[in-house]
Specification:
Layout: H1 2-30, E1 39-40, E2 45-48, E3 52-55, E4 58-60, E5 62-68, E6 77-83, H2 90-98, E7 108-115
Antiparallel strand pairs: 1-7, 2-3, 3-4, 5-6, 6-7
Length: 117
């Protein structure tokens, strides 16, 4: 009985693995045909009259566009951020964008992301 369960689980694992391989092949074949478009990350933004920008109750003095190439990316991308910092790098913004961690320090907020065609 236990041997049958092991065989069934092994067959199930192999089926899932093979389907994942086929999905990966399909994506890699058609990945170059897919066009990336501008993606708006944050949508509730407002501009205050005195050239300050507000997002979720916090005010920022600068609206900056940074661009560069992410690790292993085929094309360059850009971010538009609100910040109070005089020096902010593409790498810093890119790291935050791809991070799964929540960020409580709001030294900048990403408003827009896009791929440069």
């Amino acid at each position: 009985m236990a041997k049958n369960k092991i065989i069934v689980l092994a067959v199930l694992f192999i089926c899932v693995f093979i389907s994942g391989v086929f999905v990966g092949i399909t994506i890699s074949k058609h990945g170059s045909d897919m066009k990336s478009e501008k993606t708006t990350v944050a949508i509730s933004e407002t501009k205050v009259d005195n050239s300050e920008y507000t997002y979720e109750g916090k005010t920022y003095s600068k609206r900056i566009k940074v661009q560069g190439r992410s690790n292993n990316a085929a094309k360059e991308s850009y971010y538009i951020v609100y910040t109070n910092s005089d020096s902010i790098s593409f790498e810093e913004v890119d790291k935050r964008f791809w991070s799964s961690e929540s960020h409580t320090d709001e030294d900048f907020v990403i408003i827009e992301f896009g791929v440069i065609e």
